[in-house]
Specification:
By secondary structure, this protein is an alpha+beta fold. It has four helices and two strands. It has one domain: Arc Repressor Mutant, subunit A (Orthogonal Bundle). A two-stranded antiparallel ribbon has the order 1-2. The radius of gyration is 14 Å and the shape is globular. The mean pLDDT is 90.
């Protein structure tokens, strides 16, 4: 997923915070960052195998949050 798409998907997050979180997740090898030196530069993010292992847990937490708070959360796991 491209940075702009992530930013639109996660409403209310600042560019600075999103960048920090993506760097943190990349450092933990949960996501990967694919950089292409084009004009303009193209950066894409995706889940690593390690990140894929977390999908089930994240979906369970999302289901609990929906029951507790009655709100549909943003679905980032696709």
């Amino acid at each position: 997923m491209r940075f702009g798409a992530l930013s639109r998907e996660i409403q209310g997050i600042s560019t600075k915070v999103l960048t920090e979180r993506l760097r943190m997740l990349e450092a933990e090898k949960i996501i990967y960052r694919d950089y292409k030196a084009t004009i303009p530069p193209q950066v894409t993010y995706g889940l690593t195998d390690r990140g894929q292992e977390l999908i089930g847990v994240i979906e369970q937490i999302d289901a609990i949050a929906q029951r507790w708070y009655g709100q549909k959360s943003t679905n980032l796991v696709k």
